[in-house]
Amino acid sequence: MLDFTKSFIEIQFPVSKISKESYKERKANLGQTLTGLGKWWGRKPLILVRATLLGILMPVSEDTVKDKDIFLKILTMDNEGLWSRKSKAISTKDIYSHLNTKERKQYFDSESTLDKPKYISGLNKEDKEYLQKLVFNRLSYDEKLVLCERPEHVIIESKEIWEEINSHLKTNAFSLEELVKELGAKRYGHNPRVGDCFAGGGSIPFESARIGADVYASDLNPVASLLTWASLNIAGASDDEVEKLREFQKKVYHDVNKQVISWGIEHNEKGHRADSYLYCNEVRCPECGHKVPLAPSWIIGQGTKTVVILKDNNIDGFNMEVVQGANKEQFQEANNNITFRKGKLYCPHCKMETPMSSIRGDRRDSEGNTIFGLRKWEKHEFVPRGNDVFQERLYAIRYVEIYIDEKGNEKTKRYYASPSIKDIERENKVVELLTDVFTEWQEKGYIPSAIIESGEKTDEPIRTRGWNYWHQLFNPRQLLIHGLFMQKTDKYAKNNYELVMGLLGINKICDWDSKLARWDSAPASEKIAQTFSNQALNTIFNFPSRGVSTTTTSWFFNINNTKIMSKANIDLFDARIINNIADIWITDPPYADAVNYHELTEFFLSWDKGLIEKAFPEWYTDSKRVLAVKGTGQSFNESMIEVYKSLKNHMPDNGTQVVMFTHQDVKVWSELAMILWSAGLRVVSAWNIATETEASGLKQGNYVKGTVLLTLKKQISNEIVFQDELYDEIKYEVEKIIDSMHDLDNKDDPDFTDADYLLASYASSLKVLTAYKEIEGIDVHYWLSQPRNSTQENPIEALINKAVKIAYDYLIPEGFDKIHWKDLTPDERFFIRGLEIEMNGNYQISSYQELARGFGVKEYADMFAEFKANSTRLMTPSEFKMKNLGNGGFSSSIVRHLLVAINECTNSKSTVEGRSYLKSIYSENNEFWYKKPIMIEVLSFISRLEHVENMALWHEHAYFAKILKEALKNEGV
Q1: pTM to 2 decimals?
Q2: Confidence at residue 473, expressed as pLDDT on a 0 to 100 scale
């Protein structure tokens, strides 16, 4: 019997597999479906959206295992589905290594080795295919994923699979789109309607529409709405439609290229064309008056060994010589003359250093406020005045020579050169050409004219360079070429699709070609890196500029399209005043988010305004930063309540909301719980999808990113409860969800980590709390008005923390005695549970961070051999040795001393040294005999690592832990 009053996502969710699929998608870079359309921060993986929507639509049965199997089958995450997604062959070496002795004899030559396996003579294609499938089924999920396409690239064509799905769900579908429509009709009486009022880069509406739902998408930000429109109408277009748009792009590019060639601003006297220009700021040294070109590095190319050598002209500055194929001495000379060091100007002429703040003329007023010293540029200016602090200087050009080799083949050769007199003349011509069209192009919206509004991120260009208008973030060459693309787009675009194609193209060009873009000198690169490599508008002292030929990678952006047939409605709208009905609201709100979308997108909006007004006259072209839901504090919380109350009022009684957010701090959770509770919503489940990547940009160090899916329904209770009545309910719910997760988990391929059990305890507490209309003694309005950095623990936070403690008291390693477990310190429990995490093949930092939070362990860094994303692991006994021993905490614990004893046994290949060490440590008052039972319990646990395949570094230690355990058992017998 199917129960449509509950959804699959309320009961279970295969978080491990979805996390792995999400990570694979995130790492695909340009292979991702929507990223090619343009820059947006924090797009959610499409597989996560697909799984979420399916999880909401799928009913539950009494057979939870079968429910999970069907869910995975629909997403092609089961064994059959993974095999259908396999697109890469397993190597002969890998096949040989995964076969047993009998199988090797049957299929491989007798002289085969692991290094040189060779099939027997005459092995046919069917046998090789059989071996591929045999070995594929023996691989772990992670190993299989390396060989597979993503789920979005595979269609289930097997009639037998669809019959199994239909039999369980009582449907008659033979495609994912048909299934979504049928499940929607069974649950809501019509095709499911999915809404997202924080659409951002468009992931949620796009994927919902692609798999068959009707969608409503809105955002306050015009750039977000533009990207969402593009995702549904361009990434959602047919191949023929995309090909027509490609022809439009080619037409615009051809005209731009033709015009630039006729101007003669990119070709040198040899006919070679420039593809990159390198500029730097130049300032006068306040100590000696010399003009100093600024850069934190004078290495242009590590692969081509190209550097800039500064030559003092002994008059008023430096000549700059570009050397390609530099020797060690020239590299050293370039490094010795780095002129920007740790925030200071270094002058190679007088050898003096000056803080950059002094160069800018920054000072403090009588009240201690900083007064920034730079002149603000005026609207008509696009080059610095002669007396400005920062001048701009061209110091290198990369030219491309095309020639015919001896075999008659066309070849390309790139080389760097110092600017010649003719090059400088061409630079001057660019300024003249831009001057001629500047006013006209600003009026027509081909180049920006908007002032930069002050803000957290937008202040930096104003403060550090004096740039007061958006066009000043681009140099004359960039403004001329970008403006030319805009002019030709406006000339040739015949409809909204072509106008949007032009806007997306210019946005991509600007992201990869501005005075905030960086030159990447890495051996495999030697190219321009994008402006938004992080979430800021960082000014730099040396910047590149593209020639027209290198804009092609931006202008002809990736379109990974799939024809969308669903109904879609896109609005530019404030989330607080939504008036569209949706059965399902899936939102990724800017909750406690550090990304200032409203400010950063003004970089693009400054270029887009004119053509957006032409394409969408009903849209506004202001970032609406005043209305943006942002920050923390009372006004933010009130805005969030308003938004979610509106969404609740615009969904049916059996509707569902999923809120995605990326914070796992208990205080943030409690605040969000109070917001959603105040909006009239109740929590029914929460799941954590980990998509860990290495840190970049502003998020320094090992930044971990996981997405929490919080599932919500309408609040229907009128009951009031007292706080002291809640503990037993929370304890029951926490233990109930942990038991159900244990029952569902595959022991050979665990789906849940400690982070998931911890999250389940959060969700269980919120499920209990939000089930009531009111909790006596909790003034929600008061607590939401408190700053998030308050040290005062709010009552919701306290209840969540109690739930966490319940969970960690309940989660005992398999086979570990409960009594002995309680005798261990939190640090010891953390270490042992950490080993259990590693046993399950989980190397995510987030898992250990959550574990530490759950046990209240703050000092744990010294326990780890590696603490990097996706490669985190604890130290082995031989890595610990005697480090930091006996300094209190973990270093003085039984577990820590046992690790020393194990290492002693491993080194001596005997238990004598290990036993002697333990007796010397616990020599007083029969302490050794008192502690022996718990030592045996811990050693028994560690000995299990001997046969854990992914913990080879522990194998020998685990063996001697087993021997030491037996020796202790027999001690004194």
Answers
A1: 0.85
A2: 98
